[in-house]
Write a structure and sequence with these properties.
79% helix
Length: 264
């Protein structure tokens, strides 16, 4: 019985493959459309895509075009070909501005770019594009059910950019290029005022100026210590009683005070 069942399944499989190949190689456009849609709904996206690629140009300007173009874009999305899904969803939204699927297409198009965003240490061009597209979606659909997910994605992508900018500035500090580090930390604070890395940036900016001061020629020490003291006061303005680097900052602040006393 088991052998008979397997044989029956195998025969049905060959029959379905044969029917698909017949439609794929044939010229019957309505049949291609029908089979492509059935395969899409069954989750057989690779086979569906091969048919959609054949029929999309043939249906342009026809009543079925809107439906086919959405399936076509979403097939790329389901197959995780996010470059093409992003492009096709954008194209759909522009071609069918009154479509009921426009909101979904706008979101999936923007989300496609977020999937393309590389880890923080690599180029962030796609991250910038994803943030731009998601923000455009948020602005256009403030009541969308996808709003929370869109905002969460934007926050995640911005954190990735902030992390990269912080790591670059921190590398200058690590290499003892303190002037460049201070400049990079200043730029960071200007570009990311609400960043989760703000305490780290304020502390390492202080430490950079402090280490620069005590390693300077004597004629420059006092002025640079005073600058470092200003950075310490700025750190304490935000982290007076609690902070990951509070103890280290207070230790530096006390040493700056003692060193400045000698100049008096």
């Amino acid at each position: 019985m088991k052998k008979l069942l397997y044989l029956l399944i195998f025969v049905l499989f060959l029959g379905s493959c044969g029917e698909y190949q017949k439609v794929f190689r044939g010229e019957d456009l309505p049949a291609k459309y029908k089979v492509a849609e059935e395969l899409y709904k069954e989750g057989k996206y690779k086979k569906a895509l091969r048919l959609f690629e054949q029929i999309v140009p043939q249906f342009r300007g026809k009543p079925q075009a809107e439906r086919i173009m959405y399936y076509y874009a979403d097939t790329y999305y389901q197959l995780e070909d996010f470059y093409l899904s992003g492009y096709q969803f954008e194209r759909f939204a522009k071609s069918y501005p009154k479509s009921q699927k426009k909101e979904d297409a706008a979101f999936k198009g923007a989300k496609s770019y977020s999937h393309l965003s590389l880890r923080y240490s690599l180029d962030q061009e796609d991250t910038d594009t994803a943030i731009e597209k998601l923000q455009a979606f948020i602005n256009e659909y403030p009541e969308s059910e996808k709003l929370k997910e869109a905002n969460d994605l934007v926050a995640k992508l911005r954190d990735k950019k902030e992390k990269k900018a912080y790591k670059i500035a921190k590398q200058y500090h690590h290499r003892e290029k303190y002037k460049v580090a201070i400049y990079a930390f200043d730029n960071y604070l200007g570009d990311h005022p609400g960043s989760s890395y703000r305490e780290k940036v304020l502390y390492y900016k202080l430490e950079s100026e402090y280490l620069l001061a005590i390693g300077s020629y004597q004629v420059l020490v006092e002025e640079r210590l005073k600058t470092a003291q200003g950075y310490y006061n700025n750190y304490k303005k935000y982290y007076k009683t609690e902070g990951e680097y509070l103890e280290k900052a207070d230790k530096i602040g006390e040493d700056i005070k003692n060193r400045l006393e000698q100049f008096k």
